[in-house]
Specification:
alpha+beta
Length: 119
């Protein structure tokens, strides 16, 4: 398993991206984050809200997922973060949404590239 955690710029919070490689990794993640459906998906997004208002966002991927799965989860992350921050998505001014989604995608793809270079 490979993972990274970064501070989210501008909007605050923390993003953890994790790529799991085998059944042992899946079981470890299911226990750590109390998620039962992980083995049924190539990827999953979820937030954890702390009582102090700080939010940790997670995207977990199978090492066999596709780039379309990465984009899919980045859209969930963007929408979830914007909801948490009270930001209304505006189709007439979607630059904030596009920039943040691109930033999230780059965080995820960077981890896949790191995994590829390991193998």
């Amino acid at each position: 398993m490979i993972s990274k955690t970064v501070k989210i710029p501008i909007y605050h919070g923390q993003l953890t991206v994790c790529i799991y490689e085998n059944d042992k990794d899946i079981e470890e993640l299911k226990l750590k984050y109390d998620i039962s459906e992980l083995c049924n998906y190539a990827a999953i997004y979820f937030p954890l809200h702390n009582s102090n208002g700080f939010t940790r966002y997670f995207i977990l991927f199978s090492n066999e997922c596709k780039y379309s799965d990465v984009v899919h989860e980045c859209v969930h992350l963007t929408n979830g973060l914007f909801l948490d921050r009270g930001i209304i998505l505006d189709p007439n001014n979607d630059e904030p949404q596009a920039y943040f989604t691109g930033w999230a995608f780059n965080q995820c793809i960077g981890l896949f590239k790191k995994l590829e270079s390991r193998n």
